[in-house]
Design goal:
- With 127 residues, the chain is mainly alpha-helical.
- The chain has helices spanning 2-20, 25-38, 41-54, 59-71, 75-87, 93-96, 103-107, 110-126.
- It has one domain (2-126): Serine Threonine Protein Phosphatase 5, Tetratricopeptide repeat (Alpha Horseshoe), CATH 1.25.40.10.
- 78% of the residues lie in helices and 0% in strands.
- α1 packs antiparallel against α2 (25-38) and α3 (41-54) packs antiparallel against α4.
- The protein is globular.
Length: 127
């Protein structure tokens, strides 16, 4: 119960910060994470979309956007964003394989093809 209250406080705190400075990147990122942990996936998606608009070249913002899209069942868009995140430098491939936010993506038939391309990309970058 204490954990839930902490998240409620956390969400309210960051929403308050953002009411004064709506483009405060760190506050947005933390709020998006809090929304997702609390199960407010639509709100998390909206925040992640805003983060990507603020910093389109940020690989972590792109990765989190892919996660939110996956949670919302928007698998095709999630694939596109995950590819962009990797092209921009996101390279925690082992986490991609276990991140619960990407479960819908991993269930998709395209994922094995995607994974093979990732492995090939990783091997070519090590050569």
């Amino acid at each position: 119960m204490a954990k839930r209250k902490k998240k409620d406080f956390e969400i309210k705190f960051y929403e308050g910060l953002l009411s004064k400075n709506p483009n405060f990147f760190h506050a947005l990122a933390t709020l998006g994470d809090a929304y997702t942990r609390k199960g407010f996936y639509q709100e998390g998606l909206e925040v992640d979309r805003k983060l990507v608009n603020l910093r389109p070249e940020d690989p972590t913002a792109r990765y989190n956007f892919a996660c939110s899209l996956s949670l919302m069942g928007e698998v095709e868009e999630a694939f596109k964003e995950l590819k962009k995140a990797i092209l921009l430098g996101y390279d925690d491939f082992s986490y991609i394989l276990k991140d619960p936010d990407l479960e819908n993506l991993r269930k998709h038939q395209k994922f094995s093809v995607f994974l093979a391309k990732l492995k090939k990309l990783k091997l070519s970058s090590q050569a």
